[in-house]
Structure formats: structure tokens, C-alpha cells
# Entry
Amino acid sequence: MTPSTWEHLEAEFRRFPILKGQPASAEEVEKTASVLGLPFPDDYRDFLLRYGAAIVGPYPIFGLRPVEPMGNDWSVVEINRRLREDRWPGIDEWLIISQDHAGNPMGFASDGQVWISDHGHLSVIAKDFEAFILGSLKLSGAEAP
# Structure
């Protein structure tokens, strides 16, 4: 991500520190990617190394550390397992990183874009993780989820 995007996130978390978790280690991130059997885009990997997990704008960003306002739904491993067990349409090859308020999963496909599965209707919501973050923060020029 660009330095500007990181600064926007840092400003958000200075205002609302409860919305971020604690940093994850590189070893934990690599192990989690291996457990899920899915590649982690560099920006998402860096996000986990800095914050572990977080709420950005209205969306949870699932990760490796608890975030109090997210309750028990913060683990990227558990969310991915649960949605696959539920046979949610269209997500078999995705890395699920978030959900909207209706519970529709959002995640990375192999093309690096962020997609949403709205009960089987699949659509791109951001060209990459950085665009997803900027849209979640509702910054001008960003694609909004």
C-alpha cells in the first residue's frame, strides 16, 4: 500500500484504537496462509503484520488477532472454514477477508481483486486490497465496497 493509505489507517486507529488488533508475526502470517492453502496478497500480509485484524470503516478485516468490537468473528481461518462448510456460493477459491452487514463474504480471488458473493451473485467490489481499504474509509477517488 502507498504511504498515504497507511497514514489514513494510522489516523483512523489513533482516533479509534479499539478498532485494531495487535500485530502478527511473519511466521504466524505464513503459517496461516499455508493452513488455508491460499496466497496472501502483499498488502493484506502487511496489514496483518501491522494490525493483526481490524475494523476499517464499516467492515471487519479478518486476521490473526482479536478485535474487541468484532466479538468472536475475527479469525481469518475460522471465517474461511465456516463459510466453506456452509457451502457459500462462489467462494471456493477465495481468501475471505471481510463480510458486509448482511453476512455476505468478501474476499480475494486469484486475480487479486476483491469480490463479494451476495447469496451467489458474484461481483468485483475493488481492484485490490488497497482500493478496498480506501473505499471502506470512503476516501475520494477510491472504489467503494
